[in-house]
Give the backbone structure.
Amino acid sequence: MLRLENVEVIYDDVILVLKGLSLQVPSGRIVALLGPNGAGKSTTLKAISGLLEAEEGEVTDGAIEFEGQRIEDLPPEKIVRRGIFQVMEGRRVFEDLTVDENITMGGFTRHDRAELQRDREMCFNYFPRLRDLRGRLAGYLSGGEQQMLAISRALMARPKLILLDEPSLGLSPLLVQEIFAIIGRINREEKSTFLLVEQNANLALSIAHFGYIMEGGHIVLEGEPEKLKSNEDVKEFYLSGGGKKSYKAIKSYRRRKRWLS
Amino acid sequence: MDFFLQLTINGLVVGSIYALVALGFVIIYKSSGVLNFAQGEFLLIGAYFFLAILENARVPLLVALGLTVVSATLLGLLMERLVLRPMIGEPIISVIMVTLGLSSILRAIVQGIWGTDTHPFPALFESSPIQIGPLPVSRGYLFSVVSSAVLLLAFTLFFRFARVGVAMRATAFSQQVALSMGISVKHIFAISWSIAAVVSALGGVLLGALRGGVDGSLAVIGMKALPVVILGGLDSIGGAILGGLIIGVLENLSGGYLDPYFGGGVKEVAPFVVLVLILMVKPYGLFGKVRIERV
């Protein structure tokens, strides 16, 4: 469905952030994109959704293909109309609009009124808490409720592919569990495809069908969640608590990430 | 008492036009966070357009008004295209500075074409007043108040209920997030600048008709809308209405009662004194949105 081929992104004409990144997202799947801070995960999402444009970033090389067509030069509003919707990092709800208005904005590109009304109901079914907050200004919602709103906004566009940027950011572990469970449900019930960026690798791999690990602007490891979880380096650097620290293993402190896979 | 009533009515009429011009400010601010300092020139251009159409084309009044609206729309689109689109993504303060420059350029162009003399406005309304209760009110006044009221109401509803209206508020909050919803920020800006140009042009025509002539000082009156919007809250249409009326009435009352003691000029200062006092109590203006800060 989505294919990135050797994508290179440069910010401000000088800062090379993505250095030949390739990945694929098959239809109907949840694909996780993991990696440390500064690896270029968010940049990857923005390159796909076209939002780089507003940040002086540019795809300078490679190709981004969605359903067989190149999209790397399209403006963001056209990309949304093609069916890709990004839920940005840090939720970014319209704080001075009500919950209802925020949801309306999610469906901005659509004009089928009856269907929109049905999808609004669908959002409230996934996130019943939002129904009671409909008239409330989004800025006064809690972090978790805002994340629910941000995901609802995405659902309203009825996208083929949803790009989720760190949905767990700043939320309590319990809430994160709840939101991830719902993401899994949406994937199963609405057949939505997700590309999920996360710091919390454990959680992301628990719902993903496939995972990529990126570092320094390119993919260093990829595979099924099971395979990634059993990889020694992933265990040590991302899943924390993977290493049983015995004296025998003490030299692992000096060991660098090798990504032998 | 008659003197007081007369001043108050004058104030309300002028105030309703201030409110209309302030609406132009508010619309641009609401969608882009930019203060448009060229608003006064939009007013001026609207009035001159109207005059030129009326003098040269010899068409009925309403047609001339319609044509003014059309040309104001085009002016707004042109401004967006030439001046604002290249500034998308730049800091707000740069854009505000650009509008300041735009104001000088537009004024120079207008003076180049129409000169600096006052152009007399034809009488648009019959001079016989209409009786409202015990008070005779001139038709021009009544027309100004009613048309301002209708426009203000229309735009209040537009921002509350129309999808594009809500999208404009969304864009004001964050252009990037609006983009991620598939909202075309370029279109939103084009729409808001056109609307602002149109309401200002109408305000210009009304003011020209009330004063009986057009010259450069009309643009200065346009800038009176600045204290109005700051008083009412930069992003509130309701605030623009109330702010406009308050400033209009205050100006006239203080001018009428205090000028004899201070030797004139009170009219110009009074609104700003009140402005400062109100902002000390309500820093976001009477109805401005209070920024939601999470801690």
Summary: The radius of gyration of chain A is 19 Å.
